[in-house]
Design a protein that fits this description.
This protein has 2 domains: about 240 residues, Metallo-beta-lactamase, Chain A; about 150 residues, Rossmann fold (3-Layer(aba) Sandwich). About 45% of the residues are buried. A 6-stranded mixed β-sheet has the order 1-6-7-8-9-10. Strands 16, 17, 18, 21, 22 and 23 form a 6-stranded parallel β-sheet that branches. Helix 5 crosses helix 9, helix 6 packs antiparallel against helix 7 and helix 10 runs parallel beside helix 11. The protein is an alpha/beta fold. Helices cover about 35% and strands about 25% of the residues. Strand 16, helix 8 and strand 17 form a beta-alpha-beta unit.
Length: about 400
Amino acid sequence: MQLTDKIYYVGVNDRTKHRFEGQWHLPQGVSYNSYLVVDEKVALIDTVEADFFLEFLDKLHAVLGDRKIDYLVINHMEPDHSGSISLLRKYYPDVKLVGNKKTFGMVEGFYGEPTADDVEVTDGSELSLGSTTLQFHLVPMLHWPETMVSYLKEDKVLFSGDVFGCFGALNGNIVDRDMDTESYLPEMERYYAAILGKYGAQVLAGLKKLAPLEIEMICSTHGPVWTEHISTIIELYRRLGAGETEEGIVVAYGSMYGNTQRVAEAIAEGAAEAGVRKIVVHNLSVSQPSYVLRDIFRYKGLAIGGPTYNGELFPVVNDMMERLCGRKVSNHVLAAFGGFSWAGQAVKILEKYNERMKMEMVDAPVEWKQGANPDVLESARELGRRLAAAVKA
């Protein structure tokens, strides 16, 4: 699939994997994007996961025929992009790897020692392909330490690696102008929350560093090639990196026998009574964590709770709190709730977690013993109203 007179898309779709990185749900699959720049020299930008190498090889041959690949540019060493390096070198033994110092440390660890002909680049380095030039920019911790992006100067194309990637396989069309992108933008938010959510400061630094580049096409390693929506996705990343939210509330809970669920529903009712229109309720025993994280990144308010379980916080709630503590989510308003049968710990543990997250906490969490009686439910509605007031403020 030809993107410009010199750039070809040679990526593949994965519609069989259930979970990305072994944990993030993939109901619509995912793409592994790779690109060929065909000039006097041929540069391949990233590879694909090794399971799809034969399909990948067919695509390379369809574009190149018997022509060799001169350079393999490695923007990111995660195996869904670097996994075909060893196989590629068997079919293209003269290919030179292009990466930075940290890249080659990982190449050795994953695939064996680099060769003397490989090309080590630094920030701002350039590589001539003939009439076009690749320029390299290091963007560490987006989201691995070796991560870089490659910019084809003459065509104003940014090969961005995982940055601006999203979940979802590509359905025939590759470029945003040729497709309905409505389903991909929420999946970009979910991808960010799951994969890059810890690195907000680095995201903002990377955007600032790349701002001087004139970009007419963004070719990431997952999802569509972006042309018409470039300003939209850059703004989406800026907003997420800065921790900016919109008016809305996520109510997330775990419940064994229904009492915590009733309290969660009452909190949502109270928030609705107070005029909040966007309210999302997640049962953490059912909702896949990446969707919960996406919604928490999106909305200002979070009410979270669960029962005390063996003297600890209910496991699925504890898991979500650990995930939140590992991400940039401090710019939120938090309401806590939790029940117990004989020894209350859930609310105390939630408050302890917030010492790490540093959210603004709504006063008077709801804690109850045994059943969620009418007084408890009214307290929950009031907590929802107070959370709504803080969110709307």
